[in-house]
Fold Endonuclease III.
Amino acid sequence: MKSKNEIQQICDILRKAYPDVKTQLLHRNPFELLISTILSAQCTDRQVNGVTPALFRVYPTPDALARAPIKKIEALIRPTGFFHNKARNIRACAAALVDRYGGVVPHGIEELVALPGVGRKTANVVRSAAFGQAAVVVDTHVKRISRRLGLTRHEDPVKIEFDLMAKVPEAEWNDLGLRMIYFGRETCRARKPDCPNCPLFDLCDYPEKTA
DNA sequence: ATCCCGAGGG
DNA sequence: CCCTCTGGAT
């Protein structure tokens, strides 16, 4: 396991590598961030960024999206994959925003997770990136990295989330998950981790790491 | 040809 | 727990 000092070093190195992860997201309004986060499941940023400008031009508000024909939504988001599920989910999500919250994205984890298409990962991205709340985002990148680094032994994402909150200083929570996601895509990849170029190599417990 | 890996549903 | 949904990367 990791000492307090090692954990702080990990946070510092990740901050240096990904200084502005959140500012890229903060300029978006919460509705757009929520919908684009739902769309980002299982696909690259490029795929999502390719469809969201047109999507939000045509359907700029929860009310507009809630009334959209499902086929129109599907046509707009097709390149992101799983487009049947995602189209149904984002429309139902928009409708729930209108019905339950007057078209305003709620701040609470319980309210967010209760929205169609929104799980804990998406909810925590919105909480941390749109509302600046202290939340640790845990997706499979974070899970994999946390286990490789030796920050947790858990497998369950919720246990990992609480484990990280217990070990990492609260000031770091908000950016940690987002930074790990970028780090996980570029360096600490699932299939072929780029250990030779990894800034965390010396702090990592991953047994199969390659020099 | 197989893996990626979020959310919902069985 | 298990499976399914899609396009892209490898």
Chain A has two domains: 4-21+135-203, 23-130. Residues 38, 40-43, 82, 85-86, 89, 116-119, 121-122, 139-141, 190-191 of chain A lie near DNA strand B (CB under 10 Å from a C1').
